[in-house]
C-alpha cells in the first residue's frame, strides 16, 4: 500500500492568512477619527465662518483598533486639505504621538465655501475619509455688497 501523504515545512502563508483575516474583520488596521475641530488661533469656539486671512487651527484625533481596544494611531504623513473645488491649502499634520494631530494656517484670500478634508490611505489600513464644510466671511459680504449696488441702480 502506497500513501500519498507528504509533510511540508511551514511557510509564511499561515501568518499571511491570519493577518489578512484580522484586517478583513477589522481586528487590525481599522482607523477612526474623533474630535475633529477647528477654530481661530487663540480661541476655542468653532465659528460657522472665517474671515479671509484669519489664522486658524485644525485638530483631529485618530485611533487604531488593536483587536481589544482603540489605541492612538501615530504616523507622520497625515494631511489636511482646505478645499474649494481644488485644494487651496495642503498641510501635513503634526502629532503628539498620542493620536492627536494638529496644524495652523491662514485662510486664503479667496471668497467661497471651503471644506476641511482628510483623505488617508495606507497599505494595511482601512482608509480614512472625512470632510467638514465652512464658509469664508467675505463670501457673505460680497453677496451683500452686490445686492446693495444692484438695488441702488437707477431704473
UniProtKB/TrEMBL annotation:
Note the InterPro entries from the entry.
DDOST_48_kDa_subunit, OST48_MD
A cellular component term (GO) from this record?
endoplasmic reticulum membrane
Q: Which residues form the OST48 middle domain?
A: 38-135
Q: Give any single GO term for biological process.
A: protein N-linked glycosylation via asparagine
Q: What is this protein called?
A: OST48 middle domain-containing protein
Q: What is the protein's species of origin?
A: Manihot esculenta (Cassava)
Q: What is the organism lineage in this UniProt record?
A: Eukaryota, Viridiplantae, Streptophyta, Embryophyta, Tracheophyta
